[in-house]
Design goal:
Length: about 325
């Protein structure tokens, strides 16, 4: 069995490289057929310069969709073979532009004839296939421009890993984990305050026995995240102590914890969920907005020095 048949679309990039190498090798035969001293990789740059002299390397790179460095290298090779030259732009002396030399201009008519013949031959080639590769490549390039392959792979990976995350209720045996997770992020950005230590050292007394709740996230049997709901007046809860271990970030655990806390508040018939944060915590604020919170300016005085933003989410009853 061919390797690519065995592994399938996973090796799409490798198979495209194999096809590219096959096409490039056969393209060299085509140039030999026309007795043209020309490298296939030069074609896009030379063609654009011949059609529209006076473009810069950057402009050529943009039109071809290649890097500036790659196009610059091709221009240098064409220059060494006496086919193009670079000179100062007429309207802007700080700008180098590329034009054909007399030798390049003499080569251009023969290259045009070859190009027309290749166009007819490749059109016929595509008609022999069930799927039009040229159109499919355009669709694929468009799809990758909208969302890169890396981001697509990351989404699949995160979805798989997220399935291994479980949200569980707090147990006294997890107090050290609860404290560790929160001390880790607080000390990274700020300093521990007395209100932190009271809740982290005695969560039963300061959270659970006051009709609050603590949720934890496990990943591969380890406690990697925490979130608390603190009971407030007027049928409201404060979302607090939301923390995710750096080793487990990027798996959507913060969102799962936040959503689980909101579901819990909803089940408790809460009308409102409130939180305090700091504008330095960009990722946390993005998460809160994603969960549906919005900034308020009339919140209660905070017991934390680091608090400089308050948010709330009104729940439907």
């Amino acid at each position: 069995m061919d390797f690519f048949d065995q592994i399938g679309p996973t090796a799409l990039g490798s198979r495209l490289r194999r096809l590219s190498e096959q096409m490039s090798g056969q393209a060299a035969e085509v140039y030999a057929l026309y007795h043209l001293p020309f490298e296939p990789r030069w074609f896009p740059v030379f063609y654009l310069v011949a059609e529209q002299p006076g473009q810069s390397v950057g402009e050529l790179a943009h039109r071809i969709g290649q890097t500036h460095a790659a196009v610059s290298q091709v221009v240098k090779e064409l220059g060494k073979h006496g086919l193009v030259c670079t000179e100062r732009g007429a309207g802007d002396l700080r700008r180098n532009v590329v034009t054909l030399t007399a030798k390049g201009a003499a080569l251009w008519p023969a290259l045009q004839e070859q190009t027309n013949d290749v166009r007819l031959a490749t059109t016929a080639l595509l008609e022999e296939t069930r799927h039009n590769l040229w159109l499919a490549m355009g669709e694929l390039e468009h799809a990758l421009a909208q969302r890169s392959l890396a981001s697509r792979v990351k989404a699949v990976r995160n979805q798989r890993l997220a399935a291994e995350v479980r949200i569980i209720d707090y147990q006294p045996a997890y107090q050290a984990d609860f404290k560790r997770l929160n001390v880790e992020w607080i000390e990274h950005y700020f300093r521990l305050e007395p209100a932190d230590l009271r809740a982290l050292d005695q969560p039963e007394t300061y959270i659970l026995e006051r009709d609050g709740h603590i949720l934890l996230a496990t990943y591969r049997e380890e406690i990697v995240g925490s979130c608390a709901l603190l009971k407030m007046e007027n049928n409201a809860y404060e979302l607090a102590k939301l923390a995710v271990s750096p080793a487990a970030q990027g798996l959507g655990i913060g969102y799962q914890l936040g959503q689980a806390a909101l579901d819990k508040a909803q089940a408790l018939s809460a009308r409102r969920v409130y939180l305090e944060s700091n504008t330095k915590l960009d990722a946390a604020l993005q998460l809160y907005y994603k969960l549906g919170f919005h900034k308020i300016v009339d919140g209660p005085p905070s017991p934390y020095e680091r608090c400089n933003i308050q948010m709330e989410l009104l729940l439907s009853t």
